Amino acid sequence: MPDDGARLDDAVSTRTQKQSQSLFAARIKVYPRRVAGLYRNIKWALLGVCLAIYYFVPFLRWDRGPGAPDQAVLIDLQGQRAYFLWIEIWPQEVYYITGLLILAAFALFLATALLGRVWCGYACPQTVWTDLFLAVERLVEGDRNARMRLDKQPMSVAKATRKATKHAIWLVIAAVTGGAWVLYFGNAPDVLNNVFTGQSDTATYFFIGLFTFTTYTLAGWAREQVCTYMCPWPRFQAAMLDEHSLVVTYRGWRGEKRGKHKKGDSWEGRGDCVDCTACVAVCPTGIDIRDGQQLECIGCGLCIDACNEVMDKVERPRGLIAFDTYANLAASATGSRVRVLPIRPRTIIYGTLLLIVAGIMSFALLTRTTLEAHALPDRAPLFVTLSGGMIQNGYTLKVQNKEREPATLNLSIAGLPQAQAEIVGHARGDLALEIGPDTTASFRVLVRAPRTALKSENTSIEIRLEGEGRATSADTHFRGPAGTGGGR
Amino acid sequence: MPTKIEKDALSGRETTGHEWDGIKELNNPLPKWWVYIFYATIVFAAIYTVLYPAWPGLSGYTEGVLGFSQRDQTMERVRQGAEMRAPMVARINAASLEEIRKDPELLNFALNGGRTVFADNCATCHGSGGAGRPAFPVLADDDWLWGGRLADIHQTISFGVRNANDKARQSLMPRFGADGMLTPAQINDVAEYVLALNGRATDKASADRGQKVFAENCVACHLEGGKGNQELGAKNLTNGIWLYGGDKASIVRMVWFSRNNSMPAWAERLDPATIKMLAVYVHALGGGQ
């Protein structure tokens, strides 16, 4: 039974402590150390690939014929078109982008279920640019210990020079990043030329400035805080992981009990971990992987490289920290093994969903038509009775011609015998529609039919457009007076 | 009020002292950058209230040193819109009504402009889309009181019907019953005759008598056989479309009392280009000739 008086004292003392407590927790700055090894090499390679894609894709050319832009990937905001290789997307087809995002989401789920947060560790722009900025920092200010020393020093000319050099290089990289962004929104060589000759519009310079600023702040200053505080992914990635996912783990069964080890000491009765904290020193988010899976871990595997170096030095087997599954980790502790299970219900479900979405997307792309028509019936009046008793309906017909050639199409009505059509602005009987290349044209169409031809108040009809080997149609309705079809 | 602050055994953090059904809240401090952004928003708000209209007073409000007003902004946008339309409006002004109808670009502009103006000014009586309502003509059908050609429609919209404008369309149907020009029996007969013109007579003898009454009193305006006369706004009585109702009682009432609606002269309120667009729009509603 604890002493009640002591507990009360505790409460009072913590309250006084609270009053002096700061509103916020200062960031503990992370100084990741240089490391070499397999995962560092993979990270370098992917960094190169990602940056190369980002900077060079706008310069890829793709011949689309005369009159069309020849940039392989282009988002033309003014012209309201997006081009991706052979695919051309109109604003109303923005669902392709939705599909792409869903595809990306399922791919992320699958990758996470298999390999943990490899996206975070290797391919996420935040990781790529942070890594690049860290490399610059290391180049200018030296490695971990040198940087920590430098930050503790009072300000001096030497320190200021180093800091200024670092920030200058960061700003150049940030500006180049922002500069490359705008290349996706116009013909890249022209945009580049205009930007440097001061001929670009304010919006272009604004976005270059914006992305320069965000790159500089997020990759230079915020770094791991983006992953820990801002990004939603770490918060729910645990839902995609299970005990069969390969994640960066410390093999506690091998490592404990940890402790310092001098050359010549016996390895009997102790673990392999020599508590050198190399894994902590190299971690870009500043965590201790030996505490187990945690929110902050981006799964980059640099601690594996660091630990392997140390294991080689102390002549113990590599892999004290490794990509391993929690199932195997638990089994290893009792001396058995659990094989890696890449195919399991979770991955089958994610994979199937991925394939289904990819299938739907491919189907939609393959069956995409270059000629589309939509008919909007007048809402008021739904119909009018003409002199002589004919019933007339009015429609707004919108026709999209996504080809680079003009289209001449002949209009006809199907589904209602004796129906006559008229196009406003055309002579009666002239049912030829001209639709310019790469445009949406709007027409007012009047359809009339004798009341006796109507079988009901609401007849489904089809406005057909045919000509030059191209055809499309718009489904709509023809409305008549109440009681139509029931006999007069 | 915090009741009891204690150290959490697991995290080593203090609790806030708040407790709900045994659930205690940890007092985790906020990240520094978060707090600074919060301070920045407060500074932003203070600057904003100085620069922009913000605080309500007893009469009026603080106007802000920038002199910004949403009304001015809107008026500026309206002006920009008019400026943007100006080249097309100039083309509309320069083109004849027929030319507008034949040029797809002008036609689309006129139809869209006309639709907006129609909804603002005309739909109150004529219904949206020219659907009409009892006593107000349907504009989407092909029955026209004053003519359905573009020029006729333009004329009617510009100067209106039975108003004070000099060029307004004028005509007055007499009150044959109320003013004692025809007897009730004659009116019954003439109504029967009008029904007969539409093949709906029920009393042939009465209709025959009515034909004589019609020939003596109505043909001057409604012409032989009730075909109507658009010069005088005299309705065609044979096409099955009625302004004031087509049943016998309605026809009798119309001959007895007569009804003469009026329409404003829109040239007094709208500019020439707008009226042109309206004419093209109304013509395209479904019955233009």
Condensed summary:
The complex is a heterodimer of chains A (488) and B (289). With 488 residues, chain A is an alpha+beta fold.
Characteristics:
heterodimer, A: 488 residues, alpha+beta, 5-stranded antiparallel beta sheet, 4-stranded antiparallel beta sheet, disordered N terminus, B: 289 residues, mainly alpha, two-stranded antiparallel ribbon, 3 strands
Describe the structure.
The complex is a heterodimer of chains A (488) and B (289). Chain A is of the alpha+beta class and 488 residues long. In chain A, 42% of the residues lie in helices and 18% in strands. Chain A is built from 16 helices and 15 strands. In chain A, strands 7, 8, 9, 11 and 13 form a 5-stranded antiparallel beta sheet that branches. A 4-stranded antiparallel beta sheet of chain A has the order 12-10-14-15, with no helix packed on it. Chain A has a 3-stranded antiparallel beta sheet with strand order 2-3-4, with no helix packed on it. Chain B contains 11 helices and 3 strands; from the N terminus they run E-E-E-H-H-H-H-H-H-H-H-H-H-H. Chain B has helices spanning 32-51, 70-94, 97-102, 104-121, 123-126, 150-159, 184-197, 204-217, 219-222, 248-257, 272-284, and strands spanning 15-20, 23-26, 30-31. Chain B has a two-stranded antiparallel ribbon. The longest helix of chain B has 25 residues, at 70-94. The termini of chain B are far apart. The mean pLDDT of chain B is 92. The chains are: A alpha+beta (488), B mainly alpha (289). The interface between A and B is large, with 35 and 41 residues.
Query: What is the helix fraction of residues of chain B, given as a range?
Result: 40-55%
Average pLDDT of chain A: 90
Bin the strand percentage of chain B.
under 5%
Let me know the largest β-sheet of chain A: 5 strands, antiparallel
Number of E-state strands of chain A: 15
General form of chain B: elongated
Chains forming the largest contact? A-B, 35 and 41 residues
* Strand proportion of chain A: 15-25%
Mean pLDDT of chain B: 92
Could you give the count of β-strands of chain B? 3
Query: Based on CA inertia axes, which overall geometry of chain A fits?
Result: elongated
Estimated structural class of chain B: mainly alpha
> How much helicity do the residues of chain A have?
40-55%
Determine Rg of chain A (CA atoms, Å).
34 Å
Structural class of chain A: alpha+beta
